[in-house]
Amino acid sequence: MNWLEQFSRHRGIIAILRGVQPNEVEDIAEALIAAGITLIEVPLNSPNPFDSIEKLVKLGKGRALVGAGTVLTTDQVDKLANIGAQLVVSPNTNPAVIQRTKARGLMSMPGVFTATDAFNALEAGADVLKFFPADSLGPSGLSAVKAVLPKNTVLAAVGGVGESSFSSYLQKGITGFGIGGSLYKSGRSIEDVSAIAKGLVAAYDKALSQTC
Questions:
Q1: What would you measure as the largest C-alpha separation in the chain, in angstroms?
Q2: Does the annotation mark 130 as catalytic?
Q3: Which residues touch 48 (CB under 8 Å, ≥6 apart)?
Q4: 154 vs 14, 138, 141, CA distance in Å?
Q5: Catalytic residue among 24, 55, 102, 130, which?
Q6: pLDDT of residue 211
Q7: How many domains does the chain have?
Q8: What is the pLDDT at residue 39?
Q9: DSSP 8-state code for residue 47
Q10: What is the pairing mode between strands 111-112 and 128-131?
């Protein structure tokens, strides 16, 4: 499967549902999808994350790309593949995890910070590079690293990014954005998540239209 083609069909906002509970994840996902956010990850340090992800896989079939964040081991990759997840997102660059992800037919989005990390991740087979924490590098720093990478490398910024910074990153060629606590955190109501998601989508679409 061409994961870059799949990724490009979705708006470049990745919802990071850290701390989500299995009994609320479906309602939250429905609110996100309705708002236009169709890339969703549940970090594995959330409560019963595989239960939540399995529910999301069924709910999001044909509507969203669903997977896990904070994936650190090949065993976790295997478990995700077995329940039908599509995305494997990590905070680090672990070639073994990337290679197992690709061997199991999933999309690989490892965390990188330096040019060395980025090239190591690409060599291992990564599909999208997740620069984390992005706010430490900023748009100019990410642009400098992007300049030495293969031309069609897809970059996502995670950490300290949001409505006010979409435009500055998009102008530098960074097209993906991981949004965590500012979108969802434990205890936040569905109504609030929905309203925030709609605001993010509106800001992203406006920034994208001004960049194109």
A1: 44
A2: yes
A3: 21, 22
A4: 14, 16, 15
A5: 130
A6: 85
A7: 1
A8: 97
A9: S
A10: parallel
Could you read off the pLDDT of 26-46 as tens digits, one per residue?
999 999 999 999 999 999 999
Q: Which whole number is the average pLDDT over 187-210?
A: 96
pLDDT above 90 (res 157): yes
Which residue is listed with tokens 């990745």?
A: 14
Mean pLDDT of 152-162: 94
User: Could you identify the residue written with the tokens 């956010």?
Assistant: 37
Domain that holds residue 111: 3-211
The CATH number for 161's domain is: 3.20.20.70
Exposure pattern of 127-142 as b/e (b: 16+ CB <10 Å)? bbbbbbebbebbbeeb
Please give the distance of CA 201 from its chain centroid, rounded to a whole number. Answer: 15
Rounded to whole angstroms, the Cα distance separating 160 from 166 reads 11
Return the minimum-mean-pLDDT range out of 3-17, 45-59, 94-108, 146-160.
Answer: 3-17
Whether the CB-CB separation of 22 and 59 falls below 8 Å is answered with no
How many Å apart are CA 8 and CA 175, to the nearest integer? 9
Element (H, E) at 130: strand 128-131
- CA 41/CA 135 separation, integer angstroms: 20
Residue 1: pLDDT band by 50, 70, 90 thresholds? Answer: low
Catalytic pick among 41, 54, 146, 163: 41
As a whole number of Å, the end-to-end CA separation of the chain is 27
pLDDT at residue 6, as a whole number: 80
Contacts of 70 (CB under 8 A, 6+ apart): 43, 44, 45, 89, 90, 91
Which residue, among 55, 70, 62, 53, has the nearest Cα to 33 in the 3D structure? Answer: 62
